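This part of the workshop introduces the protein records we will be handling. Backbone structure tokens are a discrete shorthand for how the chain folds in space. Once this layout is familiar, the rest of the handout is easier to follow. The record below serves as our worked example for the rest of this section.
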Amino acid sequence: MSSSELIIVAVVAVVLIGALAWWAATLRRRHALQSQFGNEYEVVIDEQGTRRDAERELAARQDRHEQLNIRPLDPQLRQYYTEKWRATQARFVDEPDAAFDEADRLISDVMVDRGYPVGDVDRQMADLSVEHSDVLTHYRTAHDIAQGSAQGRTTTTEDFRRGMVHYRALFAALLEDHADAPTTRR
């Protein structure tokens, strides 16, 4: 083999090794995103249209989340919210719509005290998806019920009950997240 043929073989080998390394890194990143985001991974693919765009969006969510000051609740505040939730659930018997609205406010209050920005629901869901993708479907469902009610659609007591169950899943995740970590109240 001549020296020019050896150079060509070496260049081809380097390119192949580089391509394999890139492919392996892509698969590792994809697996990590799928593991972290669970069902949300597929939801974002549907929203974004391509796997590549979805993975870019999920990586951007991770980057944004790192910039947030997410913190655990101190034990007293956690207890306060637990008692508020119990009172809200008890109110459901007599005033299901008011209790449902109160549950929605409690979710927002806990998010604020944990350090999540609130206001833009899509942004809230994106921020929550980084640590709470396992209960994000619950939040979406409850939020859809709330939107329907706010827009004047007929919302039954059973709809509100289902919404409360979905809110409770997110509420519990937000309250118990990092429950053992020490913190100070702000």
Notes: Residues 178-186 have pLDDT under 50 and may be disordered.
